[in-house]
Amino acid sequence: MTVEQVLVEKNIEIPMRDGIVLRADLYRPADADQPGRAVPGVVTRTPYDKEQSGAGVVAVMPSALKLAERGYAVVVCDTRGRYASEGNFQPFHQEGPDGYDTLEWVAAQPWCDGNTAIYGPSYVGATTLLAARERPPSLRCAIPIVTADDYYDGWTYQGGAFQLGFIGLWGSGLAATGYLQQQHSRPPESAAEMTEAVMGDAFRLLGSRPLNSMSGISAAGVAPYWHEWLEHETRDEYWESVRHSADYSRFEVPMLHIGGWFDIFGIGTIRNFQGMAAAGKATQHLIMGPWAHTNYDRWLGELEFGPTGAAAAANVIADINRFLDRHLKGRDHQLPSARWFLMGANEWRTDESWPPANAEEQALYLASDGGGTMHYGDGRLVDERPAEDQRWDEYSCSGYKPVISNGGSTLQPAIGLPGPRDQTRTESRDDVLCYTSEALAEPLDMAGPVELDIWISSDRPDTDITAKLVDVHPDGKPVSLIDGIMRARFREGFEREVLMSPGEVVRLTVDLASIGHRFDVGHRIRLEVSSSNYPRFMANSHDGGSVNSATEMLTVVNRIRRGGEYPSALRFYRLSG
User: Fold this and answer.
1) Cα→Cα distances 230→36, 125, 144, 210, 218, Å
2) Which of 81, 191, 287, 476 is 20 to 30 A from 145 in CA distance terms?
């Protein structure tokens, strides 16, 4: 059914339980307020200005107008403390109660039939999930798009390391837009500094030491949340109170999770789908395409994904429409549990689970003759667990000369682009180890989570291990796929810190996220290992103290142990049959 006339109402007021008023724009069929004509309500809650967000901010998100044309009442709401809404903005912690109140207010309006849904990408996906976690009685389904499961591990930090490139620039952007909001007080003396911070040199901004002195955003009264993020370096109650993966049984409605292999929150999209499906409270669906957080075309970096690689050609919005119609209008539309894109083969697959049922876990073990440094070293990935080798791979690194981020699941557009990128320059550094398989005699389809188990020792009480999965093409070009990091002090959990003793051998597990990729005939699988990936992650000071408040960087010498009782290995899932 297509509605012939849509009415747009601006700045409707939605009261919260504490008296704060949020403002929203409403797009609805013109006759929805007439007897017998009420329609389901669809809500999206944004900190990025409802005046822009109603149009649909990413290619996998339908616009409010188009949803209204399909017979929904769409409410696009500024979150608390942002743009037209009252109150103070406190990221994450305000969104559950406010989302609940918004949905229940919508359900009670004469133009709504009492059934609601909520949807949105990125932080708008956070408002989606945090509202759904509160279990509003009217909520029938939700669509979280390119968003996280945990606002500590996977948003602000990852593997215990501060996501400097993303959080520094995103946080500064949030703070800067505060100056555009005349109804919210900001210290006028900080305006010039804030403008310079956002419009100036991003590398210089992120190079502030300590981090709580960063220009603009650190000034008193500008962004209290910036200091909170830096102070809470472990997953304490501040983070635990808003962590979805702490208890997936709190989510009781069907969801359609949408993400990308190169999205910064791709790891969380998969975790949410898996966790909610395992909890068994409601049907869950997953779509994973070859996309980054802000790129949904058929081309990204060094790779081209064919005509169906683009979101516009992959029927994602059509799936969203079918999902909403099923759960809000009772239409008999069916969606697969998981629809995912196999890069390399450039084709969509459907499965009932992730990893797919025909995916088998496989390990490739790290081996070398003690010279695994750089791409022309003797580091190898082998099928059989090697005997213990005392000729460990050793490298020295410093936060003053970190490995510079190049592609990957990044969201730092002022510095570098995400996606699959040529790693030749990175692999020419003497603080980057490379372990490479033999050329493949047959295709290898990797589909599922990828992890690195690695045994290390260090001459410092703390260090990081970074890992990157690389597809080495027949011409020798190394193209990055996914990556991750693990801070050694968090090897026993993010809730507490356990420092190392000099020379102590410890096991770290690095989560590289999930992937769907074909390594074709003649290609080789490569693993890069180092101890920095900057500025995606804040470089480790290696002194065992607070990294976020550090002003000095120490040089560290790390050793990788392999074989025998230290079976360092890349673990992944390979499709069979």
Assistant:
1) 53, 23, 26, 10, 11
2) 81
> For the residues of 44-97, what is the DSSP string, one character each?
EEESS-HHHHTT-SSTTS--HHHHHHTT-EEEEEEPTTSTTS-S---TTTTHHH
520: exposed, middle or buried (Cβ count in 10 Å: 0-12, 13-18, 19+) = middle
Catalytic residue among 85, 122, 457, 568: 122
Q: Is 293 a catalytic residue?
A: yes
Q: Based on the residue annotation, tell me whether 122 is a catalytic residue of this protein.
A: yes
Give 27-84 pLDDT, tens digit per residue.
Answer: 999 999 999 999 999 999 999 999 987 655 678 889 999 999 999 999 999 999 999 9
Phi, psi of 16 (to 5 degrees): -95, 165
**Furthest C-alpha separation in the chain:** 81
- φ, ψ of residue 498 to 5 degrees: the values are -130, 110
Check if 263 is active-site: yes
- Decide: residue 549, CB within 10 A, 0-12 exposed, 13-18 middle, 19+ buried: middle
Superfamily of domain 6-150+255-351: Alpha/Beta hydrolase fold, catalytic domain (3.40.50.1820)
According to CATH, the topology of domain 359-575 is Jelly Rolls (2.60.120)
Catalytic residue among 101, 113, 263, 464: 263
CA distance linking residue 52 with residue 72, whole number of Å:
19
C-alpha angle 276/59/147, rounded to 5°? 30
Angle among Cα 432, 438, 441 to the nearest 5 degrees reads 145
Query: 244, 257, 285, 293: which is the annotated catalytic residue?
Result: 293
pTM of the model: 0.97
